[in-house]
Specification:
The chain has about 80 residues and is α+β, with helices and mostly antiparallel strands. The longest helix has 14 residues. It has one domain: Single Sheet (N-terminal domain of TfIIb). Strand 2 and strand 3 form a beta hairpin. Helices cover about 20% and strands about 25% of the residues. The protein is elongated, with a radius of gyration of 18 Å. It has a 4-stranded antiparallel beta sheet, with helices on one face. The structure holds zinc ion. The site of zinc ion has 8 residues, from loops.
Length: about 80
């Protein structure tokens, strides 16, 4: 019996990107995790450790939360 290798078919699902660009380190390592039980969204950069927490009120899309995260980062006075 000949073993036939099936071609791996990639199923491309339309999905939001899981990682976002970090405003501090510029890497694509920011992850938005939504905790619906505690009604918070936690945004963490896996590279530099930049972190933010947002209440899940009107913001429910990871993209919206990520935008607030970036806004907050730029609004915050920089520590030197
Ligand atoms: Zn970072």
């Amino acid at each position: 019996m000949g073993r036939r290798r099936r071609k791996v078919v990639k199923v491309v699902k339309r999905k939001l990107p899981e990682f976002f660009l970090c405003p501090r380190c510029g890497k694509n390592t920011v992850k938005v995790s939504i905790d619906r039980r505690h009604e918070v969204a936690v945004v963490v950069c896996g590279a530099c450790g930049l972190k933010g927490e947002f209440p899940l009120s009107s913001l429910s899309e990871p993209v919206d939360i990520y935008c607030s995260f970036v806004d907050q980062f730029y609004a915050r006075p920089r520590t030197r």
